[in-house]
Amino acid sequence: MDRSFLNVMILSWGFMLVFTAFQTMGNIEKTILSSITNDDNSFQGDAYISLCIIYGVFATCNWLAPSYISVTGPRVSILTGACCYVLFIASFFWPHDALLYSMSALVGIGAALIWTGHGQYLTENSDNETMSRNAGIFWAIFQTSQFAGNLFVFFIFTEPNINKEQRTIVFSVLTSLAVLGTLILLVLRKSPQKLTLGEAEGVSSADKELRLPEPRHEKPLLTAWHAFTDAIKLFVTPNMMLLSLTFIYTGLELTFYSGVYSSSVGFTTAMSDNPKKLVGLSGIFIGVGEVAGGALFGILASKISGFCSGWPVVITGLIVHLFAFITIFLNLPNDAPFKDTNNVGFITTSPILAMAGSLALGFGDACYNTQVYSLLGVLFANESAPAFALFKFCQSVAAAVSFFYSTQIGLYAQLGVLLVTVFIGTGAFCFVEYKTKRSKNETPRDIDPALVDATSGED
């Protein structure tokens, strides 16, 4: 196992444990906080407002994350972000409105650092041939986080009302997992330095592998300022402006599957005798879809065919998400996202159909994310930190807006927003990929590929 691949594996498993804790908490936060309010009327914390703060701060700090990374490097950024996640999850032991919202802001800062650092670190340990594979491996391992936490919740939430003892057990386990994941990320090693071939004749192949000289370091504040201005310049390029439409859609559907849909299943009393138990099961099926999509379209893509990467995968995601939206529209009532409801959808409420919707949401999300990661890693290889920061900026702005309107509008209106944006986002991705592939095909063969601008790569 080469050093770069080992780094990717350590990164993947560390993220998996940290986000086993966080994604499980996000999936059950609405249900958990509702149960706390039932036991303590003085607590009025709202999960959707908490998540809105997280993604709002996340969006803002994405502009500053490249500056932080330019001074500290991606490994320190990843570790700092992981510590913020630990503090957020641990704060649920002491339910208080101000603490909840303060820690939500803190984890928003941490999210910007960990995800931007992750994007640069993954790119540093990949090349054009391994980027798609590494992105798929990361996504598949990362999304197994949906299994363990939600399976645990499935067996813990045995009563319609979640009592304090059950909550304490959940918080203890999730905090421990976040700490363990942070410890794994602590052992991330420095990315191997890129090599280039010497041009001198008559030297051995071993001597031709010359290490590139380290770039000259500027003063920290100047380095941070340049990183910030580079991010702004990159944002207004045509490719990034178009891709931002895809990023926005991924943010909207992230909000829906991670914070709205599973809670809606748990609030629909016609779903089963104990619908709260289905909240964890829904998260598990979302995870199954995520891992299946990551494995099929990331890890196995190069081994199966060329149609398992790029626009065919994104079109597959479009079709799968359309199936999910239609079944959810038919199966759940409009007021399901807000509180327990006795209403039903347009058909007899079916838990099997609800789990099929969860599976489709996860699989479609993997289709989009694996291809976005792969395209960004190749298209903006020399600007990976600002590129991934801008991806997360657009995604988190959309998520923050979505979590805000999730408190105001019903399920059907939310599905309508997703239906419109899925077509716009898919079209934008396919156009950018087509344009960059055509640009590379038109590049003269006698030009050294190392001299071609990074924006002419292909997915």
Automatic annotation (TrEMBL):
One of its GO terms (cellular component) is membrane. Pfam families: UNC-93. The chain crosses the membrane at residues 5-25, 45-64, 76-94, 100-117, 137-157, 169-188, 240-258, 278-301, 313-332, 344-364, 411-432. It is found in: Membrane. Its main location: membrane. The keyword Cell membrane does not apply. Keywords: Glycoprotein, Membrane, Transmembrane, Transmembrane helix. Gene3D superfamilies: MFS general substrate transporter like domains. The keyword Transmembrane helix applies. InterPro entries: Ion_channel_UNC-93, MFS_trans_sf, UNC-93-like_regulator. It is a multi-pass membrane protein. Belongs to the unc-93 family. This is UNC93-like protein MFSD11. The gene is LOC105427173.
